[in-house]
Amino acid sequence: MAKSFDDLIAKVAECEKKTVAVAVAQDDAVLEAVKAAKERNIADAILVGDEDKIREIAAELKMNIDEFEIIDVKDVTEAALTAVKLVHDGKADMYMKGLIDTKGFLKSVLDKEVGLRTGKPLSHVCVFDVEGMDHLLFLTDVAFMTYPTLEDKVAIINNTVEICEACGVPNPKVAPLAAVEVVNPKMQCTVEAAELTKMNDEGAITGCIVDGPLSYDLATCPEAAKHKGATGRKIVGDADVLLFPDIHSGNILYKALVHNAKCINGNMITGTKAPVILTSRSDSFEVKVNSLALGAVVAEAMKNK
Q: 37 FRET partner, CA 20 to 30 A, in 31, 61, 273, 292?
């Protein structure tokens, strides 16, 4: 069972080496991450974009660009479609955003002809290794679904359970979060959290343990669960997955962890035919490399499945 990012990186070594297709690859931060991923034997890359600019940036990074395949496509939209088609056709295992806006990147992901749509809703998953916690923590959704409905939350759970399993975390404990740990009809997220728990109890949601509503402290701190007398819950400070009621609460906690806690993390879009690496320009170099490692592990699991 993977309990840290070191365990996750070790799983990459057990996988057949993966290839990532990068859309609009003339991005210094992304090329730096791709260079490190190759050096660390995490993944190879096919770079799609303006070849002149790619080579110029690579020279600045002292990157041996001849080790990578480059497909010269100047137009941003066409470059994204060319890159995603490589994954669609099985010539690459993962798809990564380069110097293209998120809207344009996601449009290529959802393209009816060459995209990676499955018919399932897409959602975003972050995997955190936080100092002081003895297991990986999965956050969802902090970047994609703004105000998920009950139906959306079921899809988010299903998507995230697949990522947990790929990372070596079977039957994860999922905590639908709220400000309180009891149902309050005036707080819709608590009502939906209880409904998700019931669906799990009745077998409509499988592959995990759902217990909600839960406050953040009860979901992540065993001592808090003990002090509040909540030790009879299915989750007592040992949640693997934090399911957020909306994008605001998720994004706030994500940034609080990144900027104020000692942690390592990687991120990806799921619900697609292949892993989609969508990171922000504000994400660190290591987050991008970690996201490629996460994508490689998930790609391997998807291939075996």
A: 273
127-151: pLDDT as tens digits = 999 999 999 999 999 999 999 999 9
**What is the tally of helices (H) and strands (E) in the chain?**
11, 11
CATH topology of domain 5-117+272-304: Rossmann fold (3.40.50)
Cα 71 to Cα 82: distance, rounded to the nearest angstrom: 9
Report the 3 state secondary structure along 86-98.
Answer: HHHCCCCCEEEEC
| Percentage of residues of the chain with pLDDT beyond 70 | 100
Task: State how far the alpha carbon of 206 is from the alpha carbons of 62, 193, 236, 238, in Å.
Answer: 48, 15, 20, 19
Percent of the chain with pLDDT over 90: 87
- Rg value, the chain, Cα: 20
Question: Domain segments of the chain: what residues?
Answer: 5-117+272-304, 123-260
Query: For strand 137-140 and strand 209-210, is the pairing parallel, antiparallel, or unpaired?
Result: unpaired
